[in-house]
Amino acid sequence: MRERRSGGNIGIDGTAGCRCSSEVEKSVRSGKGSIFLYAAVCVVVLFVPLALALLVWGPGAIHRPVGVYGPWEFGPGEVVAGPGEPALPEVVRSVRNDTSVPLRSVEPVDAPGGWRPVQRPELPLPGREEGVEAGPLEARPAGAPDSVVQRVDTGPRMPAPAKSFEGISQANQLSQGFWGQPPDPNLDVGLNHIMQIVNFSYAVYDKSGGLLYGPASLSTMWSGFSVACQKPPGYGDPIVLYDAQAGRWLVSQFAMPNYPSGPFYECIAVSATPNPLGAWNRYQFVTSNTKMNDYPKIGMWPNGYYMTSNQFTGSSTWAGTKVVAFERSAMLTGNSALSIGFDMFGVDPNLAGALPPDLDGPTPPPTGADPPFLEMDDDGWGYPQDQLEVWEFHADWTTPANSTFTHVTDVPTAPFDSNLCNYELCVPQAGTTVKLDPIADRLMYRLQYRNFGSYQTLVTDQNVDANGNDRAGVRWYELRDTGSGWSVYQQGTYSPDSNSRWMGSAAMDGLGDIAVGYSVSSGSNYPSIAYAGHDVADPLGTLGQGEMVLASGGGSQTDSGGRWGDYSSMSVDPADDCTFWYTNEYYSANSTHDWRTRIGALRFAGCTTPADTTPPTGVAVTVPAKPFATGPFQVSWTATDTDSGVAYYDVSYRMAPYDGGFGSPVVWQADVIPTGATFTGSPGYTYCFSATATDNASNTSSPSSETCVAVPVDDVAMTASGTWTRNTRSGCYLGTLSRSSTAGSLLTLYRVNTDKVALIASKCRRCGVVEILWNGAPVMQVNLHAHQATKMNAFTVDLGSVQTGTAAVRVATQGKPVRIDGLGVGRV
User: Which residue, among 782, 788, 787, has the nearest Cα to 769 in the 3D structure?
Assistant: First the structure.
């Protein structure tokens, strides 16, 4: 998260608030990292020294790399490697974890009335501060022409959006009692849902744009879990991912309740089902006791969730990159999980702004492959060439101490210049002198990974100077590994006219088409949201499918902080591996911070899949314990779908007491991938289960036929007449039995609705005979004699149809004991 600049006026309810000192305002620098300090604005004004301490931080010059590595600040007891020394794995178990109640049942949490964040200035990455000149190893002058710039649209335009609807807005957050800027818009898409997240809020939609939940504050996700994670309205730099390999969702945010001192946390929630409205497995990890984990970015790999963050100590002192692996297998099941981290400051203090890979597509990486991380280097910072550094994270969950994070190679790129307006505000807007921050000092989220079998791909982008005169353009990359290591397969800088384009996000579909979404603005145009694309048939290095507008801006951001983004998000729909979903911000009118977001779906004309309009067939539920279950029992379900495959199931049941009717269906398993679960019922109830199946094209079957099972009535619930003793004994049904040796003694159950009656009893060597009566007439006689004592047995008589009447057990022999545990009745 990056800071909101006050512009000299921090409002409480959208009106003029307490006035801040203009000198303080001048001291605030825009940039790449931020955190929110909980303080009332007027208190800041009243206590000027405190306000200055919070707002006026001046980070020292940091060059990448010119041999100057300090001064670096560390907290008491912080242990780091010296420059050039290997980093040791830091193995940390989650400090807290639980499984939440279903999100759909949680009331969205609002922030306290009148709460507003006071935000601090940026935390710049090394070598990107205002006024810092390039190091002595500079290989070319800053502003040299970009050799792969695309200056015109050469082909047809991208198709218009297939879907386009409004996402979370600043107005939504104001209605909840808080605001945040920039929004950091981010989304991902599952088989049936879209989840969007911004700083402080998130929402769940269906694929038609229907709002299913929210917008709610991030605190809602952590309600009842952790003080650090759920502190209203929630911390920032959020990420949402859909883990298509497991059919689960992930939400993360950093947490730093004691800022600027530690400890510092990453809060991660992984859904327990494919439905984001269900339960979530929630985790709180310590990332450092002394270093802030700013700008965390997360990606999915089969053996872990991987994160990068930019670390700072004190208020704003650069403290290196941190990479962390989280134990995905444990988090999918809700168990306590490990994290393995590497503080890279001692290895390379200039490593910054790295991205972890995020797996898309149906094919996992090659067996045993370690995830590749990317970080970009500008030769203007002193590197011998413009390049992408490739690192690999080997996470050993069996022996975590054997884990490594290793520099693999440096991949040369076409020349680029990341120095846009000396890494300060640069992008012009219509109707205002305020310029926006291009965030040109890092790769932009995501780093998408795919495995096509014969080769693997990485797709990402960055913001660069496209014309040598500080016009922002989007440099996009496709890297490939055909078995001999990573190299640039194609690259291009998209700048087809005089507009600035920045804040990009790129991804590739299952055919190899690449879509790039971004913001576009100029001195005569309001910031808008647009996208362009590279069809697999286009010449390499070109976005041959020209620009299409997703949302036209109606105004500019007038806040002098110039904050925009800090990232956007391009995702690929796992249901067809063709449809891209993109989100970014825009303004409908001139405003300091009244931003909006847009969500759109797009696809290339050539990327099609056969329409699947047939729902799954053969949907069935089985209960091995049928017709009666004297303890927890297994319920299983199945279905067939030969077109797109079964995506998930919903399993419901109706229940009825032995003397009453059935109630309405109750959802027991929602959006589940597993095909079985254990059920525990209540004595005297019948449960009838049915299931529906939904395929990967969102076709849902009709409910299956019901399969019913009854849980017997305990002996203590039956009316005793004659001579009986009630005993508590282990091994009996529900731990009790009724004992009698007097002929004619009765245990009776009235007002019974059933089609079967079953005796739950124990045999013994001296046991006698009992009769089962239905409406006073014997329907079955049971001899409980056995040469050796046996476990509980059920003896069942079928009445032929559901009837209403009185069921009873009567002792038929004199002087021989019988031991009755219960009576099975129900509509089974």
Answer: 782
Q: Which of 364, 211, 359, 184 is nearest to 276 (CA)?
A: 211
Rounded distance between C-alpha atoms, residue 424 and residue 404, angstroms: 36
Of 75-89, 322-336, 345-359, which gets the smallest average pLDDT? 75-89
* pTM, entire model: 0.76
Domain 617-709 has CATH 2.60.40.10: yes
Q: For 619-636, write each residue's pLDDT tens digit.
A: 999 998 889 999 999 999
For 207-224, what is the mean pLDDT?
Answer: 91
The domain 90-112+154-602 is placed in CATH, from the list 2.120.10, 3.30.70, 3.30.465, 1.10.10, at 2.120.10
Is the model's pLDDT at 30 over the cut of 50? no
pLDDT in tens, 726-783: 999 888 899 999 999 999 999 999 999 999 999 999 888 899 999 999 999 999 999 9
Cα–Cα nearest to 132, from 65, 83, 55, 72: 65
What is the rounded distance in angstroms from the CA atom of residue 487 to the CA atom of residue 127? 26
Q: How many residues does the chain have?
A: 828
- Residue 150, burial from CB neighbour count under 10 angstroms (0-12, 13-18, 19+): buried
Give the pLDDT confidence of 727-738 residue by residue, as tens digits. Answer: 998 888 999 999
The C-alpha atoms of residue 4 and residue 181 are separated, in whole angstroms, by 5
CATH class of 713-826: mainly beta
Distance CA 342, CA 782 (A): 70
Which structure tokens are listed for 487? 């190299």
Question: Would you kindly state where each structural domain of the chain is located, as residue ranges?
Answer: 9-55, 90-112+154-602, 617-709, 713-826
